[in-house]
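User: Okay, second chain of the day. Same drill as before: sequence in, structure tokens out.
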Amino acid sequence: MQNTDILISGGGIAGPALAYWLRTAGFTVTVVERAPAPRPGGQTVDLRGAGRTVVTRMGLMERARALSVDQRGFAYVDGSGRISARMTADSFGGEGIISEIEILRGDLAGLMYEATGPGQDIEYLFDDTITELDQDEAGVTVTFRTAGTRRFGLVVGADGLHSVVRELAFGPEREHIRPLDLYTAWFTATGDLDLDGWFMMHNAPGGLVASARPGRLPGEIKAGLSFRSPPLAVDRRDTAAQREVIAERFAGVGWEVPRLLEAMRGASDFFFESVGQVRLDHWSRDRVVLLGDAGYCATPLTGLGTSLALVGAYVLAGELAAADGDHRVAFPRYNRVMRPYVDQAQQLPPGGAAGFAPSGALGIRLRNLSMRQMNRWPMRNLLAAQFAKAGNIALPDYRLATAR
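Assistant: Same drill. Structure tokens below.
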């Protein structure tokens, strides 16, 4: 086996999932994560299709189901809170807008960390990040912000939409991210908002979207406020300015938006992001390779980001194991296996950002009407094709152990 020391940047979901499979295959793995510890909370993510298969092969499905959030389904509501259209959680075989298994991002990341953390022979470097990469024929010299300089055989960027590894190895992110002119904020709220188990969403003219869904804890609400806009000059680190942008955009909007805005101002987990897709012709440069959102972010509009991360981790590890660690063989194979799956996943649902956040009242009414027709032709066929994408890959059997 070639140099088996592999560095993974990113300790969310994709990175630890890859670490699990690489260690199972006999590689030496280090994970570097910018946060000081595994990050709890966050919004819910979907376990769908082939992503469920990977979690099952890891021996973690029972735990994932135990951590899943109990939701009745998805519902559009008007300004008075009346439901105008809905889809139950068991629609489309549990693969509808609300997946049968939805889990808080932090809970799934925590589950992955439990499978790879202390006692699992995987090194974690928390509260650190990569600042330089220098590749040569024998390996990669990596400079960390605090851990000094070390050598690795391969480096994997699993560090999200704004990947440091991608920036260092592939160039400026503006060359690889396709913005959708959509911004979104996520945060946790508490209060007496009665959701009755539903993930509720309210659209308002101007491309505004407010949402609230049950958390896992009693009284916990996972809220979202999104809006369509050309690029904004808002510093990604200036949360006060970001909150002010949201407050200005949603001033005067009905439903429960005033309460959500009030909760947003004091939320400790407030997160603001521009929505965009990552598009690259190749996911590797010599000894550096990208995984998950860092290489092929599909956006939350597709509901397939978690499946892409889990499946990509399994395939990348499997191809490295099959190639005895030779990246010159494994990386092109990883690309060939994953490319059709990624291409499908990156196709946005009908209407794209405009369908998610219609600009006018007429567009909102038409979208709600189409949702009420979801179980009739042709809407059912269109939605079924979108939801089926999560399973549209024949996962190879890499003969990796299913659990350690």
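The radius of gyration is 21 Å.

User: Thanks, on to the next one.
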